[in-house]
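[Help] Beginner question about ligand-bound structures

Sorry if this is basic. My supervisor gave me a protein sequence and a SMILES string for zinc ion and asked me to "get the holo structure". I don't really know what that means in practice or what format the answer should be in. Inputs are pasted below exactly as I got them.
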Amino acid sequence: MAVRTAVTRSPKVPEVRKGDTVVVITGKDAGKRGVVERVVRREAAPRGGRSAFRRGSSAGGVSVVVEGVNIAKRHTKPRQGSTSGVGGAPRIEPGGILEVAMPMPVSKVMVVCSSCGKPTRIAHATLENGRRVRVCRHCGEQLEVKS
Ligand SMILES: [Zn+2]
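Answer (accepted):
No worries, everyone starts somewhere. Holo just means with the ligand present. The predicted complex, written as structure tokens, is below.
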């Protein structure tokens, strides 16, 4: 019987979810931490070839928008914001330079474990009820996003 050893050499895309704390591991923002605001899954590249875009972990097309990280500066004109802000006071957006977090490839960030506080690789585990959860490789705690 050929038992395949579980080799996890391929830099598999960790499942990052909205609300996770991540640390940037490369690029100009390396070392910064932030909370994932959004996960952007791009559909499989239109230029054919590889099919399947597998659920959960499609290599490649996943980007994340992390609060305060990978900031792009947008130049804007002053304008009046909506009145839906706190207290109903009209918010005047002063214009000038607006800082917007841009999506970055998920491979550039690492999830920070909320239990032990270390950047970690994600392991997967299946609970008795069949639910798949993400688990910290350092401390073994589940990394579920409280929502
Ligand atoms: Zn941990």
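A couple of things worth pointing out: Confidence is low (pLDDT under 50) at residues 7-13, 48-58. The radius of gyration is 19 Å. Feel free to follow up in the thread.
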